[in-house]
Design brief:
Oligomer: single chain
CATH architecture: 2-Layer Sandwich
GO molecular function, one term: ligase activity
Pathway: Sulfur metabolism; glutathione biosynthesis; glutathione from L-cysteine and L-glutamate: step 1/2
Strand content: 5-15%
Protein name: Glutamate--cysteine ligase
Keywords: ATP-binding, Glutathione biosynthesis, Ligase, Nucleotide-binding
Family: Belongs to the glutamate--cysteine ligase type 1 family. Type 1 subfamily.
Helix content: 40-55%
Number of helices: 16
Shape: globular
Order of helices and strands: HEEEHEHEHHEEEHHEEEHEHHEEHHHHHH
CATH class: Alpha Beta
């Protein structure tokens, strides 16, 4: 164990109450589907409020792709409870539709029949819609129907000054904190293969998803493709592939180089997109012809984040006020769980992310960068293969050995979290993960394949059965009248807010887009 980690653990031990101030938040995406497991073609239900202005229930890429957002809270159990309440409320408004249980999509219609999300007639609403049209143009609509879980996490704000002082850092508080979060992200790149092994839950998919493209998957049955040892096909190179983004440097050595590479990508034309242009037949088809339309188009497994002000762009917020939290983006939805994630997973993630933040995190050179990527891809495609070896410091190491070593190290953070919060929830969460390392059949990916085999089901049949089971579970536990009322009020107020925005809108959309583009180019290096 590094001496740095030892010192930081001692500091935390002396300031245990601080550990109750970590913040957690969850965003869960899921498709609305029909009773027969096909993509719902209905508009976003008005009873759920306005997707543009409802802070807890919105849409992601498609009109049919819901996104549920919890507030950031200090208690992970309260976050999960809030997520479950959102699900229960939504089920009071979905008459004959279901929330699709896994990450990989249901039976999809023809590419052009996948509806792109609509956000009304305000300039910001139109911008969100045109951005999604651009995504369709660049990556295809099918790919945008993959859903996931994003886990947001921050360390206590009061911890950073203590660490900075203990380490005699000469950086100002903002820069010290940002550098520490970027160091967390580097370690996350090193160890995120472990999350794919433990929580990957997409070993199979519907054959129709590939639209006849070439692939290296095997047939499980006439309708289902899979890889026998895969953990997360969602995170494999089947998912987002972007030649335009291939040149973006994903190695995080400091915040400035990260924001700079994104700023350049948003300002650098990409010839195939230039060829299409921003308009076809007088209609907007993409916001610009650059490598990225906006910074959020950059696909990564984890992002440094800062809450933005109204009208502010993510890079502007990071550049001016530094990193505030991280967003983990590589988690599959577990189709065996009613809301796709549970408290055991959240507890482990907290300990894992604290470990990444506090352990020594040297800069990543190009060799280590590509080693991180190849370890990640090995695990998503064949993480349960007996005897699988990964690369560590250029040497082969059995996944099982490395995973067990990491879990033992993370155990020290789990102990501290339990001391701070009482009980032994975090230690138990770690034991549950070690059990999966000892027996791959306990992983969600193996469990999914086992259920499909046991019931002799295709991917679609399994997923629809799970979706119905979860719907029943959630509907059998209705919200209290007060909780239901609070969601109803939020929905009504969001509709009123969108309507007001549209009535008060001034200025042409083209001018609005121009100003939006210029705002990022104005940021100095």
């Amino acid at each position: 164990m590094s001496t740095l980690l030892n010192r930081r653990l001692s500091l935390l031990g002396a300031n245990l109450p601080l550990l109750k101030q970590c913040l957690h938040g969850i965003e869960r995406e899921c498709l609305r589907v029909t009773d027969s497991g096909r993509l719902a073609q209905t508009p976003h239900p008005e009873a759920l409020g306005a997707a543009l202005t409802n802070e807890q229930i919105t849409t992601d890429y498609s009109e049919s792709l819901l996104e549920f957002i919890t507030p950031a809270l200090p208690d992970a159990a309260a976050v999960l409870e809030n997520l479950e309440q959102i699900h229960r409320f939504v089920y009071t408004k979905l008459s004959d539709e279901y929330l699709w249980s896994p990450s990989m999509p249901c039976s999809l219609p023809a590419e052009e029949d996948i509806p792109i999300a609509e956000y009304g007639t305000s300039n910001i609403g139109k911008l969100k819609h045109v951005y999604r049209k651009g995504l369709a143009l660049r990556y295809g609509r099918t790919m945008q129907c993959i859903a996931g879980i994003h886990y947001n996490f921050s360390l206590p704000e009061a911890l950073w000054p203590l660490l900075r002082e203990a380490e005699g850092s000469t950086e100002n508080e903002r820069d010290y904190q940002s550098a520490a979060y970027i160091a967390l992200i580097r370690n996350f790149r090193r160890y995120s293969w472990l999350l794919m092994y433990l929580f990957g839950a997409s070993p199979a998919l519907d054959k129709g998803f590939l639209r006849g493209r070439a692939h290296q998957l095997e047939e499980l049955d006439g309708e289902t493709l899979y890889l026998p040892y895969a953990t997360s096909l969602r995170m494999s190179d089947l998912g987002y592939q972007s030649n335009a983004q291939a040149g973006l440097t994903p190695c995080y050595n400091n915040l400035a180089s990260y924001t700079d590479s994104l700023r350049k990508a948003v300002g650098t034309p990409y010839p195939p997109y230039v060829e299409v242009g921003t308009h076809v037949d007088g209609e907007w088809v993409q916001l610009n012809t650059n490598i990225l339309q906006i910074e959020n188009e950059y696909y990564s497994n984890i992002r440094p984040k800062r809450v933005t002000y109204s009208g502010e762009r993510p890079i502007q917020a990071l550049t001016s006020r530094g990193v505030q939290y991280v967003e983990v983006r590589c988690l599959d939805i577990n189709p065996l769980l009613p809301v796709g994630i549970d408290l055991t997973e959240a507890r482990f993630l907290d300990a894992f992310l604290l470990f990444c933040a506090l352990d020594d995190s040297p800069q990543l050179n190009n060799n280590e960068c590509s080693q991180c990527t190849s370890n990640f891809l090995s695990v998503v495609k064949e993480g349960r293969r007996p005897g699988l070896k990964l690369q560590r410091d250029g040497q082969p190491v059995p996944l099982k050995d490395w995973a067990s070593e990491l879990i033992a190290q993370i155990g020290q953070l789990a102990n501290l979290l339990d001391q701070a919060q009482g009980g032994d929830d975090h230690v138990q969460a770690l034991q549950a993960q070690q059990a999966k390392v000892d027996d791959p059949e306990l992983t969600p990916s193996a469990q999914v394949l086992a259920r499909m085999t046991e019931h002799d089901e295709s991917f679609i049949a399994f997923s629809l059965r799970q979706s119905r089971l979860h719907a029943q579970t959630l509907r059998e536990q209705p919200l209290s009248p007060d909780q239901q009322q609070a969601f109803e009020t939020q929905a009504r107020e969001s509709l009123a807010k969108q309507s007001q925005m549209e009535q008060e809108e001034v200025g042409e959309f083209d001018t609005f887009v121009g100003a939006y583009q210029a705002s990022i180019l104005a940021i100095s290096n």
